[in-house]
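Chapter summary example: a protein plus zinc ion.
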Amino acid sequence: MIAAEASPAGLLLRAISAGGIETCFQVPDFELCLDIGRCPPGAERWPTLLLTHGHIDHAAGLPYYVSLRRLYGYPPARVYCPAASVEPLRKILAAWTELQTNSEECELIGVRPGDLIPLGKGRWARAFASPHRIATVGYTLYREVKKLRPELQGLAGPAIAARVAAGEEVNVKEERLELCFPGDARIEVLDWEPATLRARVLLLECTFLGEGETPAHAQEGGHIHLDQVAARAEQFQNRAVVLTHFSRRYSVEQIEEAVASRLPAELLARTWLLTHPSPAGPGRLAPAAPAPAR
Ligand SMILES: [Zn+2]
């Protein structure tokens, strides 16, 4: 399936997600994929893959990703995953190698909550624990940005230029939380990991929204229900909250209607929806509210 493309809060994403079917986010600014789904077209070009957990809709494309990179002459990828998933994934790659040589050509690295993953060019990721049904880690993507020292803000351009010419360091380095992706998770992930609420862009699974499926049902399955997001609407400080991983039992229209009617206006104006692809075409990654609201 073809990924949808858009830039919530200015961060380009190529994304595909439908609960139980396939989830993969390509983040070109960080040259990586978050989960690999069934390895949608183009995902193989990114040298780093951050896997949240080993469920098939998030990880099935791993051998294909590794193999395509070899086919196209890219160097072996660095693949990060929960430490508990390393051995099962290694076995899967080894089995493919029996059938087709060198499907193991990647660096498979187990991560634990708190681990930092260097991504080069002043970028890094940090892993955190996510509450799901199996071992799961989420990832926050950080970038180092330079900002004018607070005491110099308000000075005119020539005055700053004079200080630079005199050899003064006028900037301070700051870390910016660009994106947070808990993977599949229960709603408590918002309490477990403060970055979920602070990152510029939050990719938040919202598997269930129907009245037939209650928040208790979502909780039991290790997922999130739309009502739980609505109940915590005031907590989100993100510039954009992208709701993803909707169950295929809902039509795109049902998703759009439910989100528009249940989220308060202030959060709705910052909410994006990633709807699932259909045989008729790719899914959409688009603002949940009509354009005038943003
Ligand atoms: Zn899962």
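Key point: The chain has ten helices and 15 strands.
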